[in-house]
Please model this.
Amino acid sequence: AQKITQTQPGMFVQEKEAVTLDCTYDTSDQSYGLFWYKQPSSGEMIFLIYQGSYDEQNATEGRYSLNFQKARKSANLVISASQLGDSAMYFCAMRESISNFGNEKLTFGTGTRLTIIP
Amino acid sequence: EADIYQTPRYLVIGTGKKITLECSQTMGHDKMYWYQQDPGMELHLIHYSYGVNSTEKGDLSSESTVSRIRTEHFPLTLESARPSHTSQYLCASSVLAGGVQETQYFGPGTRLLVL
Model:
């Protein structure tokens, strides 16, 4: 069963507008973490923002904020005042434990390709 | 800012060749990971390590092997490359950053094309 769902394969947004990228997740764990990564065409994965399941406030990092709705199991990324350099693939990911030694893997969604239009 | 490096960035190679993808990090992270990503698709975990001399297979079955002889180094080897191995390979490392947050930082990736 898919654990991370990103329902928007692609989005086009006018420069300087705000954009919301959707992410829903499925887990039975009480403690979990949610991440957003940006992947430009060059291929590297750039960490943007993190939200812990016990965090009461929504995470913010500069122009990025995470709209965390625990009851709905959603963790949408909001980018304010979009810029041309924001054009990239965006992946939502959830942390899961995979060993008794504290290793954790990230389960990724299928991503959303965001294109900022001048 | 993460310091994790991968070489080569791009590799085109013929079927049957042995290849090693290098990954190194200078942050002293104990945990390291290899993910495989087909173009435009999600990442899948293929190998991970929680420290020196420890390696485990991930979710996605892979014919590759890994080793962890030094903390900073986590190379991935394909003994006999095939066209089905064509993909991007991303290395990551992590450390507990206070509380329960553990952020994985990624290298720039290696894009492999097997002809």
